[in-house]
Structures are given as C-alpha cells and as structure tokens.
Hints:
This protein has a single domain, classed as 2-Layer Sandwich (Nucleotidyltransferase, domain 5). It is 33% helix and 33% strand. It has 7 helices and 10 strands. The termini are far apart.
Amino acid sequence: MYRLIIDSSTKVMYVGLTLDLDLIDKKIRIAKRDHAKYLVDEIDQLLKRNDLKIANISEIIVGNGPGSYTGLRVAGMVAKMLAYTKNIILKEVASPFFLTSGYQEKVTGLIDARRNQFFMGTYDNLTTVIPEQIGQLDDFYSDKDFLESRKVLLDEKNYLVDAKKIILKSTIVDDVHSYIPNYIRKTEAERNYDQKSEI
C-alpha cells in the first residue's frame, strides 16, 4: 500500500512516500509563508520520480496541527481535495508528533506561536503524554513529564521524522468533506473581530 505523509505546520514542508510501513522517498522544502505555491507540485514530482500516479495512493496522512495557521490550511486543503476527489482514505496525526516522531526518547515538540507562546505536545514513542496545547514555557514547568522530556524547538534543523510511527499513530478522518485542522486558537483577524464586538 502506497501512502503520502504531509506536514506544513512550520517552515518545513515535508512530503513523504511510503510503501507499507517503509519510507521510500521524500521531498522537503524549507519555506516561509509560501507553501501554497509548491505543495501540489512537490507531491506531483515525488510521484513522477517513483513512476506513480495519485491513483496508486491508498492513504494520505496529514499533520493536523497545531502550528502555522496558513501552513495547516495549505496541507489540510490539499490533502482534503485529493482524498475527496480521488476517493483516497484520509488520516490525521498531530504535527508536533509528526515532526518529533524520529526521536527515541520522551520528547516535547515546540512550535513557535509568537508572542512568547508555543504550540506543544509531549510524546513517548506512540503515546501522547501531554496533549497538544498552546502556552508559554513557564506554563509547562510544573509538569513532570514536560521536565523529563527532551524539548525540541521545531524548525528547519531539529525535526526528525519516523514514517512508520506516523502511520501507526494516525487516525482516520471519517468525514473528509468536513475536515478541519486543529488550529487550537483563532486567527488574528478573528481575535480582532471578537475584541471589537466586545466594545
């Protein structure tokens, strides 16, 4: 079974191609706010390089956040479109897990959420120890699991992906048409609107 695994929750746009549980090829692009220009083309190039077509793909696993709002929207829309139009099974997995899945110890994935905040999740192999959330680092230091874990700021240098673990931890999206990433917080425009509404 061929699968695509996709994440663009950070500057790292990761597209992997797996056969059964093994990663056989990947495309990685480091970007800043321009994933939308390249994701479909990167998928197309990856498939062509392996003499495959989208019809050969049985599942798509997408990193569902939390992370960059725009990045999540891009990966989510592309995965949703391909799954819906080509009748491909869509699965999801948390982006902090996706990008730290290659670490062997208990690990906390941290994604910069600006304003001194981070999206985070802590994992021990396939187990979610601290669920995905947003906060300042000081908010987490009272948690023993956080203190014991390796903290990884997820950027273009520190991500480590294990395709097999991503496949094993992913869960199916029952209603592809209604798929929405786990943004956790509202967009800045939504927050500004809420503030104006309260005045």
